[in-house]
Amino acid sequence: MYLSRVEIDVNNRQKTKDLTHLGAFHNWVEQSFPAEVKTGKRRRHLWRIDPLNGKQYLLVLSEEAPDLTQLATYGVAGTAVTKSYDPFLASIQKGQVMQFRLTANPTYAIKQPGKKQPRIVPHITIAQQRQWLVGKAEKSGFQLIEKETVNNIEAADNRAFDVISRDWPVLRRKPDQGGRGGRLSRVTFEVFLRVADVATFKQALINGIGREKAFGMGLMTVIPRG
Question: Which of 44, 207, 224, 74 is nearest to 136 (CA)?
């Protein structure tokens, strides 16, 4: 596995004028793997848009390393980098406390009379979105913990995790992606977790959490604490 990053050149509107919807970012990511495009054998690439210190970055997790020239298409020159993710995955231990960030599409299913497929509906409130992550945690091999257990943070700020951003970015799909459009609920969660099941947790990091992974959702990244 490889984790790659490039700073998006948000100050160059001529370069980034096409990046107006999630489908355009999806296409950028896909084009960064020209060998897969050529053979028509596409692998899943997790990605998300990360704000950091007033800048925006495209973060990509993939089985193979991307072509850095293609990854830099809409990026600031010289900022595209990639590194092997495998040494980090191999270092994960049960009980390890980590700071995490997850951008996801919290949803639930409603049965539709007379139809096999349920209707997928987004969670709207912060309380619903937080509960969605609580439900995903055990299935994903981790436990959400209170901040006061890490570095003796004050009990007054002991929420298990935070919703740091919520928005509804535009999604435009190509015909081969179902042809549907609209907006997706995008929520970013942060703070602390404890690894409960190493193998399951690794799979969650590699495969993502929740729906709409092709469109910038599901990628969780973690940083060990202590």
Answer: 207
